[in-house]
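I had to read the description of the data format several times before I understood it. In essence, backbone conformation is discretised, so a fold becomes a row of integers matching the chain in length. I therefore recommend that a typical entry be quoted early in the introduction. For illustration, here is how one protein appears when written out as sequence plus structure tokens.

***
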Amino acid sequence: QISPVTGVSGVALACCCANIIGLIATIVIIKNTGIKLKKPCKIKTVLKDAGGILKLGIPSGLSSVSFTLSQMITTSFVALLGDSALSAKVYFTNILSYVYLFSFSAGNANALLIGRRYGAGEFELADKMNMQLTHLTRIVNLIISLSVIALRRQLLGLFTGSETIIAISLGIFAVDIITEQARAVSHV
């Protein structure tokens, strides 16, 4: 046994420990940098600021919730098809997470850059930057998707030698090209 972290309880324990260590590190960093955290003067100000944050955060959070919910529903349907289909979905999802990593990262960077431009009143430049990044991200996602399709057998071979699982997965990669184009636009 390589690690004492085994099973669901082991992973949960490791996650909790990592979160506690992260919290302690954050507190130490804040204390060492001299950042002063002020207590809010009025409860009205706190509620107003919290409302503004929630206005922006809830739609983003709902996107995450809907994605997770759709994955749960899809996985439950796929599980009804048997172990091979479920394994194929898991392997495909693992490979897919690398495919959309670029567009996800570009979308996060874009949010910061566009927000800055809009804040400065440079609306036309912000729109132009957004359109350029959307086109670039779609092209990069297409190239990555085509590369994955070309290497799909080798990539799936990293996870399994089962011809049944590989056969089930092969068709999904071709359909994913369309999904990745939409995902690129959504992320940006």
About this structure: The chain is about 85% helix and 0% strand.
